[in-house]
From TrEMBL, chain A:
Domain Pyruvate flavodoxin/ferredoxin oxidoreductase pyrimidine binding: residue ranges: 253-490
Residues in Pyruvate/ketoisovalerate oxidoreductase catalytic domain copies: 15-215
Organism: Conexivisphaera calida
Protein name listed in UniProt: 2-oxoglutarate oxidoreductase, alpha subunit
Keyword Oxidoreductase: yes
UniProtKB/TrEMBL annotation, chain B:
Gene3D superfamilies: 3.40.50.970
Enzyme Commission code: 1.2.7.3
Organism per entry: Conexivisphaera calida
Protein name as annotated: 2-oxoglutarate oxidoreductase, beta subunit
Keyword Iron annotated: yes
Enzyme class (EC, first level): oxidoreductase
Domain of life (superkingdom): Archaea
Domain Pyruvate ferredoxin oxidoreductase beta subunit C-terminal positions: 202-273
A Pfam family per the record: TPP_enzyme_C
Keywords: Iron, Iron-sulfur, Magnesium, Metal-binding, Oxidoreductase, Thiamine pyrophosphate
GO molecular function: 2-oxoglutarate synthase activity; iron-sulfur cluster binding; metal ion binding; thiamine pyrophosphate binding
Keyword Magnesium: yes
Amino acid sequence: MTIRAVDFILGGPQGGGLETSSQVLTWAFARAGYGVISDREYFSNIRGRHSYIHAETSAFELPRALRYPIHLLAAMDAETVFTHFGDLAQGSYLVYNVGEEKSNFAAIPSMEVELRERLRSMFPGIGVDGTLGSLVKYMGSRGVTPVGLDYASILSNAQREAGIVASQVSRYVSAILIGAVAALTGLGEDYVSYGLARRFQRKELYNHNLYIARSVMSQVKSKFGSPLALEKSSIGHGELLVASGNDAVAMAKIVGGLRYQSYYPITPAADESFTLEEYESIHGDGFDSEVVVLQTEDELAAVNSAIGAALSGARSATATSGPGFDLMVEGLGWAGMNEVPVVVTYYQRGGPSTGQPTRGEQSDLLSSVFASHGEYPRIVIASGDHEEAFYDAVDALNYAERYQMPVIHLVDKFLANTIASMPVPDPSKTKIDRGKLTGNVTGNYKRFDMSSPISPRAFLGQAVMWYTGDEHDEVGHITEDSEARIRIYEKRMRKLEIADSEIPEERRATYYGPEDADFLLLGWGFVKGAALSAMSELSAQGLRGAYLHVRVFSPYPSKLVAGILSRFKPDRIIAVEHNYEAQAARLARMNTGVEVERSILKFSGRPIYTDELVRAVKSVLSGSRREVLSYGA
Amino acid sequence: MARRPSPTDYRSDLWNDWCPGCGNFGIVAAMYQALAEMNADPRMTVVVSGIGCSGKTPHFVKVSGVHTLHGRAIPFATGIKLANPKLNVIVNGGDGDLLGIGAGHFVALGRRNVDLVVIMHDNQVYGLTKGQASPTLPREMQTKALPKPNMQDPVNPVALAISSGYTFVARGYSSKVKHLKDLIKAAIEHRGAAFIDVLQPCVTYNDIFTYDYYDKRVYQLEEAGWNPDVKDESDAVGKASEAYSKAFEWGDRIPIGVFYRNTHVPSFEDRIAARLPNYLKVPPAEETVDRGGIPVMDGAAFRKAFSEYIVDVAKG
């Protein structure tokens, strides 16, 4: 028997090689033509705390969301099993180390106190004595097949047979997980070898890992077969881009002509700048792409130097997360006042304050739309998946220059750290719009020429011009004259109306589902994947819903959203968001007058899973006004 | 400009609203003269300022001007310069702006050695907010607006610049315009981060460090035989520590002139150029990013550049 999609978790200590297992498997599944998505959950810690990767691989689609319960848990250590045993479905598989059967949950120092307390009160009731062995036995009685492997003997065999240096051998646990997952899902050895070859350029490391993965594959296959074997892929892509959200945005910025990126290190934004630095110098057939990537002393310097670079004429951006964005807000106001095209890629994470630095949230929407004192126009785009993030990042650079205003590109940690398969982006489907440029100016130049809301722009070096954060006249000099104030204020603000009239509303919000749907989910950002998956599941159960995905929050697509909301009864509209306040629903009310009264919210730091969303939608449809989701370790 | 420019060519026609007698007038006068003598192209010259009385400087100079946020002139200037290293970028900031709210940026510029000139309007008080103590006002001093004597110790701007890595460190006095003009020219000609601490009496709020005070004490380092130049890299620490000690000479005699100059440290632009081969020839601001609205990087180039992310699905 074969199945269409497998959800699995790889778990282990942070820094223990989980990322390697995940990368190799992701490439291997993609090579075999399967769609993949994998979310990484980790503590704010470098080594030792429990980390896991939750992935889905599918034979029929490029998956966009994850679900519980899972089919397979592959554990590097006992803590992983103690943390995730409840995630396993009937008929699922547990790969664990038999050498750890005696280890007791109460003696695991890295475990969160709350989890230990939950286990302490739960285990006596289900007859588990606290050891891994007894928990595995219990799981066996609940329909989970334990795949016990002796990690130590696998490694010591490999050490002998493949010539691994003894001190290095513990680094190969990742290969055990790779072998076990490949065997159970029926992934061919060629694909495993492909994934390993991509991961390990050093022949020796490749050989060692392949040796271990192979021996685990044959051991697992001979005993268990391939009970989770995937059916042949029907996706039909000849090639796939496999990337994290951070990387997708970095690639898009390069395609979009980015020439200056500044950043101050912050999770989960910094990886984007690392990738940009890696690709800072690309020279091709008749073109050069050189990006200055500057690690600044703080976020104030990051945003302000990006603004400076934009004044000189470079396409310019910075990337940050909540605490960093707060520091950038002052600079953002200056950019608004001075009509500077600058992009801030804003990776949302758990707040407030430093909140949950490595966990996901969508609680910075209102802060983005309203950031900074005074009034100034800005564009706020929010991406729902990797493909959107790619094209949105290019558009962010375009909108910034076309409308001469700051653009905030909202993504979130879920997207940033999730690796997904997507069609290879096609740069020829993108445009570069540099807006109204004058080039070199002889004679007097008015940077803020009042004859139209969007004044022709010259770069520093092309004309003499002035800028100031104070209110200014057409030339850029300070003025406090009351009438001049009104004229320039209106000129500035009117640019947002122009953006509103030019950017099609369909670009800013998308309706998914049948026209005559019975209910509507209203969401944004990474909610998109879970919402679409939940809708198709609900529709298979006879519940016909639609999903309205808002992708630009300023200028808000008011008419389109109002029109769609008005088609549904108030108790059939449900906001789905990763925050407490249903922030996008508040903006919908502000812009359309329609109050969204029902909500499904998750602010635990973990992504919304398809299955929990399906359940919550049913609860709301039967009367509940507010559901707070909590699944996920 | 066909003819040799005169200092007045660099004066904007705006009314300058600094207090009559303000030390800042000497600083802009020296800038006009320096720019004229260097025949500076007004389009290629950018004056960047922060907030406060000194913040208004760009509006009074007829070259491009960017009047930014409190404390942030250096980061703005850094972005402007790195995106187009062909520009000549001069920062003007107050002592509160550069050493209070902007102190982190001040230090970072020294570490990078970006080819910028920083002119600090040093009057020991916050003028535009009416006379509060700035980071350069000594402890126990009570200038006339202060309700109580200052409780905080001063930072020594020259010493801080030397220890932060500035490769040109000088002090000027706004009443000695010609001398200051020469310092500004030398700072512009220097390739790397240049800092000039300008003693600049605030006639409204500082009744201690007045013209009279400085006129009696100021002397020129070059006339006293001071050699600021680092001979070679092995001489850098020795020269820096001599200059550092000299920076603390204050009281009956106050030195002005170039304290320290090191031409052996690569500028930040040179450091970037070592990684980006086109950087100095075609800077980021001038690079072509599209052809008729289409990105210069096409599908084939994308695949080649990012092959690490692309998986060819196996056939069969």
